[in-house]
Amino acid sequence: MPKVNREKKEPARAQQKAPQAEEKNTKTRSKKAGASRQVSPVKVAFLGGLEQIGMNITAFEYQDSIIVVDCGSSFPDESMPGIDLVIPDITYLKENAQKVRAFFITHGHEDHIGALPYILKELNVPVYGTRLTIALITNKLREAGILESAKLFTVTHGDTVDAGPFRVEYIKTNHSIQDAAALAIHTPEGIILHTGDFKVDYTPVFGDPIDLQRFAELGKEGVLLLLADSTNAIRPGFTMSEKTVGHTFDMIFGENTDRRIIVATFSSNVDRVQQIINDAEKFGRKVVIEGRSMVNFINTAVELGYIRIQEGTLIDVSRIKEYPPEKTVLVTTGSQGESMAALSRMASGQHRRVSIARGDVVVMSSTPIPGNEKAVAKVMNELSQLHARVIYQDTHVSGHACQEELKLIYSLLRPKYSIPIHGEYRHRHAQRDVAVAMGMQKSDTLLPSVGDVIEVCRDYCHIAGSIQAGPVLIDGLGIGDVGNVVLRDRQNLAQSGIIIVVVGLLKSSGELVSGPEIVSRGFVYVKENEDLMDDLRGLVINTVEDCAQRRITDWSKLKSVVRNTLGDYLWKRMHREPLILPIILEVN
Amino acid sequence: MPKVNREKKEPARAQQKAPQAEEKNTKTRSKKAGASRQVSPVKVAFLGGLEQIGMNITAFEYQDSIIVVDCGSSFPDESMPGIDLVIPDITYLKENAQKVRAFFITHGHEDHIGALPYILKELNVPVYGTRLTIALITNKLREAGILESAKLFTVTHGDTVDAGPFRVEYIKTNHSIQDAAALAIHTPEGIILHTGDFKVDYTPVFGDPIDLQRFAELGKEGVLLLLADSTNAIRPGFTMSEKTVGHTFDMIFGENTDRRIIVATFSSNVDRVQQIINDAEKFGRKVVIEGRSMVNFINTAVELGYIRIQEGTLIDVSRIKEYPPEKTVLVTTGSQGESMAALSRMASGQHRRVSIARGDVVVMSSTPIPGNEKAVAKVMNELSQLHARVIYQDTHVSGHACQEELKLIYSLLRPKYSIPIHGEYRHRHAQRDVAVAMGMQKSDTLLPSVGDVIEVCRDYCHIAGSIQAGPVLIDGLGIGDVGNVVLRDRQNLAQSGIIIVVVGLLKSSGELVSGPEIVSRGFVYVKENEDLMDDLRGLVINTVEDCAQRRITDWSKLKSVVRNTLGDYLWKRMHREPLILPIILEVN
Fold this sequence. Notes:
Two copies of one chain form a homodimer. The first copy, chain A, is of the alpha/beta class. The first copy, chain A, contains 16 helices and 26 strands. The first copy, chain A, has an eight-stranded mixed β-sheet with strand order 8-7-6-4-3-2-20-21. Chain A has a seven-stranded mixed β-sheet with strand order 1-9-10-11-12-13-19. In chain A, strand 3 (about 60) and strand 4 (about 65-70) form a beta hairpin. In chain A, helix 5 crosses helix 9, helix 6 (about 210-220) packs across helix 12 (about 405-415) and helix 7 packs parallel to helix 8. Chain A is globular and about 85 Å long. Mean pLDDT of chain A is about 90; it is low at about 10-35. At the A-B interface, helix 11, helix 13, helix 14, strand 24 and strand 25 of A face helix 11, helix 13, helix 14, strand 24 and strand 25 of B.
């Protein structure tokens, strides 16, 4: 069991100490990192985390120990119809289960914690995280029914945790969720710094700015390898402070004192909600929190003291009609146009308690994640049609560092090697350009793929091999039982539908004794195409009779002839290629 | 047959006169418009054109005459799997075929001409357009094999065409394709001005700026109704001149004299291609035009003199290897990430003649159309992985008017009524906000839906009724044979796949004599789920036997029991809902 070592330097932070603290450790940080030289390199295995959204998980291995940073899920893309969730393939970790010491989680977003309920079932090792992060993981594991058996440990920024030869240090950063951390992983070969998702916010809404002093200190000490967030690496400049969104809200509230205000944002962005609540209190409005995940998040944040709300500000949605519209604010999910979220249901008139009224001001306080643009536009159109005023400009800032912030981090850390993470290839490539502009050798900045294993030590850093890795698809309760073949079938079915041809054949002679029954789905509207169906039936009868005469009783051969005959006919007649599925029932 | 009246005022334009000119008409414009007062209003029927992209088509009806402006197609959205193209439902026009005088086309983009090959087959009336527009329609109709029978007429900006009680005047505008026009439709009730797609470009690359003087003149005369492009109405400010993109290209060519340059853009944006060619000639590079639609477009533009290329600048793609890379430019399709376009094939290494090489500069000279963001990102990632340098900033300007341009048009025309067109509801709503800010009454600006019919005359403008209208889906050679039921089946098949259950039953008793055969597609990988299939077979046998004992020989009843039994089982076991399709073969 790894040990938590409490930060001693800053007594002001002592109150944030986790109750689970097990043992104090007063060794200075550098001692372990500077321990006797080991010959073997550290292996870094990328099980995920090299795409823009989701499935962030990276394993660090040294001799007989593995620690894992983050354990995220991702959402299915359009090539995965019917899939509910995507989690990483952890075959490698299972094969090395006895080595795995712990998961270290950087923050509580789904793409960093979402796979834990599935993966802890197979690999129940300790999980470390800051307070809000652990609280969110606790909620998830409780829902999955595995909270009892889980080993969760809360750490505070500044704490370090010993895990075999690794010592993992939590460092304060800023992000679009509170309590985010970078990890300094002290290894026998040197310090590996993993930024998690981060931005530099000098004036955060809650808590401290990113601990740039500690970054500088580590840089002085010497950083072997930097793994930094690339999400915004293609953007020049600096990401604005979350506080700037507060100014926009001030303006919106000030200009619309006679209207109801509805704000849609990410449920995890507690600071955003805090700023809305601040304005509500300033302008004398009641606040309704709406949408399941928003309610859960805000409840957790309130319980932990991460959000400050005056007594009486929050009201339940059932009481909203007791107040004049201009004295209420709704804070809701659905800013990404998710079809089942509260805002979408309001926009389509399907919300049980909230109807959009003429003149309502709806603030879309987020930017569409790539792929969600059309869904967001749909909701905005529906809101406009209900005569709501939709505001979306200057109502959001990103949680990720732009180029100038990356330059700052590179200049404080001056890493020997770097591996841009968390981003599509072009984003990671852009971070490499930043690193090169800062004076690094191009060859010292690696752009691995999922499944690659890096070996890094004082003398080199290179791709040394690869392991099994990639997405595991979850459909309903099934984990991994939908693979490429099934997905391809689904895509083909969606493109042109299916035609099923059933014939009953005498087992002995292949003579047609029943059918053909021809049924189609997703092909054409049959009632208006009876003649086409008649033609297909005729073709099948001819084909079967012909095969019977030719004494073909190899059913797979017969099926293939039927498939080809109908396929050719349909292509010629209508340029379509439905899936054709012949089924033979043998009759004695 | 409508008559073309040639513009007399500006002899400099006489050279642009169409060869098809039939008869001169020297009446001044205002005469007809000021003709004796008619009591009946003009009807404006929106058969399409109220969405952002596509299917632009509007009918104007006065007593026994109908004219139609534009005849566009649109692309299927994600709710229409397998659909190739979407065209408008013209039932209303067919029912009133004897009234329909002509199509007037504003410009040659697909969303304004794409449905002509289908619709002229059903309604072969004259089609009017400017020179490039008619040339592009000619190409389309030739491909569709109906050019011979089509009645195409070329007009020049400034010309008017008489069509029954309507006189249609072509007015020069600017857009992302050359030869775009606004239409002043002179009716007995007053002037209706249809902007088509437009922007205000004071310094166009080719030809004249928009004819603001004529807009002002018509405004003085009095405009009854304005139908204006809303695509960019949510954007403040002014759309930049196409020439500004030329400056960016100057810079890119100047900075990359040692590298090959590949530019992807819309094939219809001939001015963009002209600017690339200008730079190629300035910097001594050969130009390769690649991608079928790009080659077609540029050929047509060259033939008509809409593009100026020095002798020897263009080379065929097969000769590209004869020149050093830094002495060539490729201009290609695929800027929207279309999977079959030339750039995508280059990026994925599947282009027969062009391989992306380390250091190639690839310029993405377009903005992703909503819905294409992820496809564009995919191509950019692939290009980065091949070590190309991808440039996309400041390499595109829109072809549509922003708010300040709309204000200019409203202030020149001062219409009595207005109907924002060409945009999603929120875009049209934003144009209404502009109109109201310019002093119009909100009630004088209408926001109809597809299928609505407006009545407009000197005294009023209101929604008076509706007609059958909407999308007709084209799948292969089938037009309209895929409807909502089939689409819903396709969506369901994609979500969870299909399970087909076939049983052979004795006709008399319902006794199971063959099967059950259970086949699935898109459900699970069967080979790894044999036990599940066994369970399903067992369930079917039990259900069928149970029904036989209960003397149920109503097959539809039996099917429904099988469907429900398996459905319940699968939901409980795996939380999935595949389409379950029982098929019964009767055996004597």
